[in-house]
Amino acid sequence: MSLLDIREVTKSFGGVQALRGISFSVARDEIVGIMGANGAGKTTLFALIAGHSRPSNGEIVFDGQRLNGLRPDRVCRAGVARTFQIVRPLRGLTALENVSTAALFGATPAAGRKEAEERAVAILAQVGLSDHAAQMAGTLTLAAQKKLEVAKALATGPRVLLLDEVMAGLTPSEVEVMLDIVRDIKARYGLTVLIIEHVMRALMEISERIIVIHHGEKIAEGKPADIAKDADVQTAYLGKRGPGHRDRGGGP
Ligand SMILES: Nc1ncnc2c1ncn2[C@@H]1O[C@H](COP(=O)(O)OP(=O)(O)O)[C@@H](O)[C@H]1O
Ligand SMILES: [Mg+2]
């Protein structure tokens, strides 16, 4: 049975249709990758799931509960946490304070400051930030700020984690470290993960299934190896017209 259902979701911003009738399901424990060029609608999809924006049409159902219409704090309390593509730490607080603040909210809030801090210490260790616990978040390197985003989301005790380009701008070795972190926390907390990533190799490596969005439409869905071979995906990405290409009218 699926844990998260996206049903015919559409989102318009004035005249811009950012998403057009997107549907897919995510099973418990799955890692699903979301692929698509800049402006495809990926971040908009996460904003809709997390309650930062409302769908113009369609339904988002999490574990039998309709999420659309709920405020972000309600969605978070229901067990869905997201990271932001543009990192959003509380810059004047330390890494530890950022994560313990997050631990006071969400699906399984800590009972008080002490418990929140204990949880934050453990999570900082799991994402490799123990040495930076006392550092002001605003002074962390990009790689460390990306880890802090993951740590903050994790501290809310989610069942579903939405990761928006947590590897963007990182060096290849930093990407490897982040891949290990995502795998580790997924196993440790039994998470279901949706991951948007521009680093294609990383997305192919970590995802069990990939959904491709192009100009707000889902154009492909399948195993990474099949997605790499998909004619529509090649057309959308490389402008290639492989054998078996279906003319979608218009095109990129
Ligand atoms: N708040 C907004 N207001 C108006 N247009 C928006 C807003 N958010 C996103 N868009 C537009 O929706 C489209 C999809 O954006 P986005 O979801 O950020 O793409 P992606 O994350 O795939 O790069 C883009 O054309 C973008 O300009
Ligand atoms: Mg985006």
Brief overview, please?
The chain is α/β, with parallel strands linked by helices. Helix content is 37%, strand content 25%.
What are the SSEs and their pairings?
Layout: E1 2-13, E2 16-27, E3 31-35, H1 42-50, E4 57-62, E5 65-66, H2 72-78, E6 80-82, H3 95-103, H4 113-126, H5 142-155, E7 160-164, H6 172-189, E8 192-196, H7 200-206, E9 209-214, E10 217-222, H8 224-229, H9 231-238
Helix pairs in contact: 3-4, 3-5, 4-5
The structure holds adenosine-5'-diphosphate and magnesium ion.
Describe what this molecule looks like in 3D.
The structure is a single chain. This protein has 252 residues and is of the alpha/beta class. It has nine helices and ten strands. The strands form two sheets. Strands 6-7-8-3-9-10 form a six-stranded mixed β-sheet, with helices on both faces. The site of adenosine-5'-diphosphate (ADP) has 11 residues, from β2 and α1.
Strand order of the largest sheet: 6-7-8-3-9-10
Main β-sheet description: 6 strands, mixed
CATH topology of the domain at 2-79 and 159-238: Rossmann fold
Structural class: alpha/beta
Radius of gyration over alpha carbons? 18 Å
CATH homologous superfamily (4th level) name of the domain at 2-79 and 159-238: P-loop containing nucleotide triphosphate hydrolases
N-end to C-end Cα span:
35 Å
Ligand identities: adenosine-5'-diphosphate, magnesium ion
The number of helical runs is 9
CATH class of the domain at 2-79 and 159-238: Alpha Beta
The CATH architecture assignment of the domain at 2-79 and 159-238 turns out to be: 3-Layer(aba) Sandwich
Give the overall average pLDDT: 91
- Approximate helicity band: 25-40%
Taken from the alpha-carbon principal axes, the silhouette is globular
N-to-C order of helices and strands: EEEHEEHEHHHEHEHEEHH
- Count of beta strands: 10
Unreliable runs, pLDDT <50, ≥5 residues? 242-252
Strand content: 15-25%
